[in-house]
């Protein structure tokens, strides 16, 4: 009889534990879903005053500059036509704050797209670095890690960067996986830029005919990757002014 009572108590304990774990998982998934939905709502509201989709249309550039100058403390705007990437670019005194904060300062796991705190805010460094989360619903920088084939690259060869004073077509030329502990240069010593370009093109998951010159400024966009522990995916292009 004692064995029977022991088995019943063990059964109840295991059942209770499984119910507790199931409820915890449900709450976690619900919380993530709410976070995703809040991110969609917030960013849709931010971009709601943009009336034109064509990336090199002066009206779109003007709409974005109005947002940056009047309504948002952002430094720039990053856009990739045909993808969810259409976001303001923030910057703070460290590379942690905007991992967990919306542009308006509210806490959320979506975070913001942000410029490396060491970069100049006008994108005049040799290499400006943007960071963003790889969200499971494909938002934020979730689409960057899709650049693992030349076919996908050819369908989406350009990003667009709009600052408060200038607009650029970002002509992509390399995308590769790197370790999260690697430090990418912001400024190059003599001959350093060409060595960097050759290295990343050799590692690239796609093939591009574009080879930047020493006069070109670069834009690097980084998000998480799951090829190995602490991996990151870096997508790199050169900045070409839109006249």
Automatic annotation (TrEMBL):
Q: Does the keyword Transferase apply?
A: no
Top-level taxon in the UniProt lineage: Bacteria
Coiled-coil regions listed = none
- EC numbers, comma separated: 3.4.22.71
What molecular function does GO assign, one term?
Answer: hydrolase activity
Q: Establish whether keyword Membrane is in the entry.
A: yes
TM spans (from-to)? 12-31
Task: Write the record's keywords in alphabetical order, separated by commas.
Answer: Hydrolase, Membrane, Transmembrane, Transmembrane helix
InterPro entries for the chain: Sortase (IPR005754), Sortase_dom-sf (IPR023365), SrtB (IPR009835)
> What is the name listed in the Swiss-Prot or TrEMBL entry for this protein?
Class B sortase
What organism is recorded for this protein? Bariatricus massiliensis
Q: What is the lineage of its organism?
A: Bacteria, Bacillati, Bacillota, Clostridia, Lachnospirales
């Amino acid at each position: 009889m004692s064995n029977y009572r022991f088995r019943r108590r063990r059964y109840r304990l295991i059942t209770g534990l499984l119910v507790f774990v199931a409820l915890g998982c449900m709450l976690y998934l619900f919380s993530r879903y709410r976070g995703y939905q809040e991110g969609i709502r917030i960013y849709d509201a931010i971009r709601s005053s943009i009336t034109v989709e064509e990336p090199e249309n002066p009206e779109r550039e003007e709409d974005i500059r109005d947002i940056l100058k009047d309504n948002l403390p952002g430094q720039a705007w990053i856009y990739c036509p045909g993808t969810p990437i259409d976001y303001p670019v923030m910057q703070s005194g460290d590379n942690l704050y905007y991992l967990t904060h919306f542009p308006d300062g509210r806490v959320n796991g979506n975070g913001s797209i942000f410029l490396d705190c060491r970069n100049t805010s006008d994108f005049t460094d040799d290499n400006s670095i943007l960071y963003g989360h790889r969200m499971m619903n494909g938002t934020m920088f979730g689409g960057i890690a899709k650049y693992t084939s030349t076919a996908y690259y050819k369908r989406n060869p350009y990003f667009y960067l709009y600052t408060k004073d200038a607009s650029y077509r970002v002509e992509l030329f390399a995308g590769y996986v790197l370790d999260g502990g690697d430090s990418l240069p912001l400024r190059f010593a003599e001959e350093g830029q060409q060595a960097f370009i050759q290295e990343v093109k050799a590692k690239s998951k796609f093939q591009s005919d574009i080879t930047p010159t020493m006069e070109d400024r670069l834009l690097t966009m980084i998000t998480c990757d799951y090829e190995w522990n602490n991996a990151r995916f870096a997508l790199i292009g050169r900045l070409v002014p839109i006249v």
